[in-house]
Every structure is written in C-alpha cells, then in structure tokens.
Amino acid sequence: MIDPHHRLQTVSPWVLTHAGLVPPEAPVLDVAAGGGRHARFFAARGHKVTAVDKDIAHLGGHTGIEAVRADLEDGSPWPLAGRVFGAVVVTNYLHRPLFATLLDALAPGGVLIYETFARGNEAYGKPDNPDFLLEPNELIARVLSTCMVVAFEDTVVAVPKQAVVQRIAAIKA
Known about the structure:
Blueprint: H1 13-18, E1 28-31, H2 37-44, E2 49-53, E3 65-69, E4 85-91, H3 99-104, E5 106-117, H4 138-143, E6 147-157, E7 163-172
C-alpha cells in the first residue's frame, strides 16, 4: 500500500530550482516538514536535515534526518534554540511569530527558501483564514534587512493546482 502522504512527496519546483544555492553538506532545517518531501530531498543530496513538525510519524527512520516533534504555534519555546543551519526551508506554512526565529537560525551565508500562500488565494481554496495568507510583498519585506534576495515572486501558479503564492530565495548577509 502507498503511504497516504506519498502524494505530497513531489519536491516543490521552487525548492528544486534554488537548492543549488545551499552550500554542500550544510545542515538544513525543514520547518513544518509535513510528510518530509523536502527533508528527504536534502538528505539525499548529502545534507544533515532537521525536520520539525507537530506530527513526525512520516519523518523518522530516514538516514540523515533528525525529526523533532514540536507544535510551532502553541507558544512553547523554540525547540532548536541556539542551533544554526546552512539553509532554512519552509513551504505552505505561515506563522508570523516565527519569522525572526527562523532568520536567527540561519547561519551567515545560509540560504532561506520560503514559499507559501498569499492574499488572493482565498479564491482558489485553503487556507481561507486571512491570517495564514501573506500580504502583498510581505515576504520580501521581512527578509530585506538581513538577507540578499536572489529571487522573489508574488504570483499565481498553476502547478500542482492554481494558487496565489509568494516565494523567496535569499542568502543571509
């Protein structure tokens, strides 16, 4: 039987395009890792990956992946305090109070690859709560003070299904 999370295992084209920016063997943090598609992708590239999510059932047992169970929205302390990573990857997840923490967890020269839903996505489906949708240019505004932006888009995509997204690839100064 196929793992029900398997359908989620296709690597985001945005992550795939910008993965080459991540220094070889740099430790990678996959935030709200879900089924672990990006954690496994970076582990297969030789990176040690820390994947954090409130449900880590599909993250354990993979070589090169440290699964950390944490509810990132319940007000608990950041579970990786003091640790820094050569890359931080976030897809389809937004919890604004974490932005500063994630940027702090990024080592100098480290790469931020972030992609999530933006205002306007209500027309295409979830999330329908505006608190989980980025405002126009919000993502770039949040990283400009600490990172050099390599690529940024605030756009409508058609794959895997139509959605309004913002996505950024940036290198910490």
